[in-house]
Amino acid sequence: MSILFAASEIYPYAKSGGLADVAQALPEALRDEGETVYSIMPLYSEVDRKKYNIEFSGLSFDYWLAGVRHQFDIFYRVDCPDDLFVYNPILCDRLGLYNDVYGDFGDNSLRFGLFSYAVLEVMIRKELDIETIHINDWQTSLVALLAKTRYNLKQKIVLTIHNLAYQGVFSKKVMDELEIDWNTCFKFNGLEYFDNVNYLKAGINFSDAITTVSKTYAQEIQTSAFGNGLDETLRINAHKLQGIVNGISTEVFNPKTDEFIEKNFTLKKYKGKQKNKEKLLEEIGLEGEEKPLFIFIGRFTSQKGVDLLIDSIDLFKDYEANFVILGSGEPSYNKIFAQIQNRYKNIHIKIGYDEAFSRKLYASADFLLMPSVFEPCGLNQMISMQYGVLPIVAKTGGLKDTVVDFTDIEDLENMELGVGVTFGELNLFWFNHAIAKALSLYGNRPKFIEISKHNMSVDNSWKNSAQEYLNLYNS
Hints:
Blueprint: E1 2-6, H1 18-32, E2 36-42, E3 54-65, E4 68-77, E5 80-87, H2 89-92, E6 99-100, E7 103-104, H3 108-125, E8 132-136, H4 142-148, E9 156-161, E10 169-170, H5 174-177, H6 182-185, E11 192-193, E12 196-198, H7 199-206, E13 209-212, H8 215-220, H9 231-236, E14 241-243, H10 272-284, E15 293-300, H11 306-316, E16 322-329, H12 331-339, E17 347-351, H13 355-364, E18 367-370, H14 380-386, E19 390-394, H15 397-402, E20 403-405, E21 418-423, H16 428-443, H17 445-457, H18 463-474
Parallel strand pairs: 1-2, 1-8, 2-5, 8-9, 9-13, 13-14, 15-16, 15-18, 16-17, 18-19, 19-21, 20-21
Antiparallel strand pairs: 3-4, 4-5, 6-7, 10-12, 11-12
Helix pairs in contact: 3-4, 4-7, 10-13
């Protein structure tokens, strides 16, 4: 099986969210299964070419659209030649992947339209013998439309929706800029969306198969509550929609080898985890290594339940526990967290993205807070389990599929899923009720440690999910 995997961001080259982690780990898992996987992404200005040994491949070409010449240069990673990169000045020459401090880039419709053309042109010009093209989110969704209309290709197109809230809705004038056929494409079962264009809708309608990143989310997005205006389109295409839960890279997120943490530890050397907590608390100025440590790592957006987190701060200050919040996001949330950053002696807040600090948090924490309003899959809960953390999660999407409440467990030894604390209603009472349950559990140290060690043993790798994708590619 030969697969072309296209994504707008891939770790470690460029990352703004969980898509980058998936786009690194799934191709890696498929290669481990013996498949040939080419990955392709834009060569943004922030990608460190020297660090990752990225060089020009020798392939350069022009593509004319609406009387404008667009030049593309193709690069590759020398020590991993199947990792391909597209350079085009409109696509790549700017600070940020999709936006800057002023908001989304005004030409994103053109940028990722050009990238979609480039994906197919690279496949054709390099004469890659591809059987399946796997695209991800709205940024690559036009690949499906172009493959089925302008190029008339026979390859199977698989679209993965990582987060339906982001759809790529733009003015219909881009139809002419990208020479998309009006008669074939600008209609309800194409990419037309309230007299605009919707790139993700194009991907849904023109792909041969659609996956979302958990089974529960695949059902949720077919309802008006979670469908973000595309629930009808998804119900029409339900015959080709399925949920495959994400995995994580157990090589990257491994407390035994993680270079970012103070003390590496394993199931057999579990006491090393406490050393990480002691060092972290010393580093950030919190006291009470015997107290439970709760962490939040994520984007400051309403989706992540940040409003509930903010409303709970005044309650957190009175708990016999420490809290650390790491993230950044919408300016209004950043401002609120900045205002309360140093207000309470048991709450530490760090605004910004810091991979090294996040690893230290995972290695040190007892509980992870994920009060998400909706969560297509979620990676943090699975990452945290690798480090012996118990997730506290809302019962939605992939969180529901990967975490079981500790009070619902009868046979922990034979439980395949991770164990933590779950809550159903998104309000202040039930969120803090879940935290109270966690505090009570922490007081029962033997039980808490048993669950912590269980979580470290849960298989959240990509092995099973990769096999599901292979079955889909071959179906």
